[in-house]
Specification:
The chain is globular, with a radius of gyration of 21 Å. The termini are far apart. The chain has helices spanning 2-11, 13-42, 45-62, 69-75, 79-106, 108-115, 127-146, 150-173, 180-200, 208-211, 215-221, 224-227, 229-249, 252-289, 294-328, 333-355, 358-361, 365-386, 392-419. The protein is built from 19 helices and no strands. The protein is mainly α.
């Protein structure tokens, strides 16, 4: 029976790819799960809070620093286009990172004041470097998705997380309890980039002299991706607005508790979501091309994702504080209370975000733009209105309600794109 089950998986390409990526996500999360109780005993909530602010600033821009041409790499119709887009993305990312460095250097005091980032110290200047590293790895992952090498993607996930955890623990034991998380994060991305470049060079050779003349033509064809980059900036800002406002209106310890909430629950869900959405981004164009039933695929994925997240969501909503005390220590009970409040919205975000690449695969990018504008404005107005007036528990409760409302709208947009795919 087991042999038949394995054989069935091997024949079902989607399940096989999902299994490969999911195993990578599962192993990486197991590493984080077993390491986090140790990290929470090495690093104080204040350090977690400051580190989270550092990551929030870099991640806000890393997703858009290539002009989103990295996404076009996956959906391009032929290999030549994808290779040209690959080179174009590297060039734009490099220029963006350099310009970003000069901007934050010249306006250091101004931006630190706005972001309440004075305590970052010299780590402030490492933000452009991290933006570059994150962006290039995202690009490499997209190209691996293009060539359907999900084994590389899975190994990449595990490798980077293992590096980060190992270096962070070592730094902690060596006494670098203020710098360890920063050092570990930067080195894990740098080493992973070198590893990934070595692995992917079998499939694409970096040659700007050969690809450069094709850039103008490629930009004209795929202009819609950079044109909608501001939507991704809004999406990133919406994700990190809570971090910016919690940092400014509450203590770094509160931000640290919220950070662990994201690390313990939201990020693991995001890992799984990204694994499945990576396949969706590639699978949906194939379904459209072969004129298969896209609506059936959409509802089937909705059902499977809902089943997958329901039980963990119920358990954490009921028992998160007790679980956090047991796993992370008494000092982190507040994180459990945050999880209990936010878990219902996390579950819905998981399901909808996993399906969201359908908007790009059906070339309904404008719907993504509309939703991000609406979500950004409502989220920003919410925090401007309430962050300085409510205690942190009420703030997170109302935030949970807001996110549920916004992501239900997002789901309706995705459903519309399934019913109305476009050809390019």
């Amino acid at each position: 029976m087991f042999y038949k089950f394995i054989k069935k998986i091997d024949k079902n390409i989607f399940i096989k790819n999902f299994t490969i990526l999911s195993l990578g996500s599962i192993f990486s999360q197991l590493i984080v799960f077993f390491a986090t109780p140790l990290l929470t005993r090495i690093y104080k909530p204040e350090i977690f809070g400051l580190f989270t602010l550092f990551i929030a600033i870099s991640s806000t821009f890393s997703l858009v620093s290539s002009g989103r041409f990295n996404t076009a790499v996956v959906v391009a119709k032929n290999k030549n286009e994808s290779v040209t887009l690959f080179h174009l993305s590297i060039l734009i990312t490099t220029i963006f990172s350099i310009l970003f460095f000069f901007i934050i250097f010249i306006g250091e005091n101004f931006f630190k004041q706005i972001l309440n980032a004075k305590k970052l110290g010299f780590w402030w200047y490492f933000i452009p470097i991290l933006i570059f590293l994150e962006s290039i790895i995202i690009l490499f992952k997209d190209y691996a998705n293009r060539i359907k090498n999900y084994s590389i993607l899975s190994k990449l996930i595990v490798f980077r997380v293992l590096l980060y955890v190992t270096i962070a623990v070592i730094c902690g034991f060596l006494g670098y309890v203020s710098e360890g998380l920063f050092i570990a994060y930067l080195l894990s991305y740098l080493i992973t980039l070198v590893f990934f470049k070595f692995k992917i060079k079998k499939f694409v050779k970096i040659n700007f002299f050969a690809q450069g003349p094709k850039f103008i033509k490629t930009i004209k064809k795929f202009y819609i991706f950079p044109l909608n980059s501001y939507a991704h900036i809004l999406n990133s800002l919406m994700t990190y607005i809570p971090i910016y406002f919690i940092s400014k209106s509450y203590s770094l310890s509160i931000l640290g508790y919220y950070a662990l909430t994201l690390n313990a629950i939201f990020l693991p869900l995001s890992f799984i979501s990204n694994s499945v959405s990576t396949i969706n981004l590639r699978k949906v164009p194939e379904l459209i091309k072969n004129r298969e039933n896209l609506l059936k695929y959409f509802f089937k994925n909705t059902f499977y994702l809902t089943v997958l997240v329901t039980l963990p969501a119920i358990i954490l909503t009921l028992y998160a504080p007790e679980i956090c005390i047991f796993v992370f220590g008494k000092e982190w009970q507040t994180t459990g209370e945050f999880i209990k409040i936010l878990m219902p919205s996390f579950a819905i975000i998981f399901v909808v975000s996993t399906l969201s690449p359908i908007l790009f695969s059906t070339f309904n990018n404008h719907l993504y733009t509309y939703w991000n504008i609406i979500s950004f404005l409502l989220t920003l107005l919410f925090f401007l209105k309430f962050s300085s007036k409510l205690n942190i528990y009420d703030l997170l409760l109302y935030l949970s309600f807001l996110n549920i409302f916004l992501y239900l709208i997002y789901y309706i947009f995705i459903f519309y794109s399934v019913k109305n795919p476009k050809n390019v």
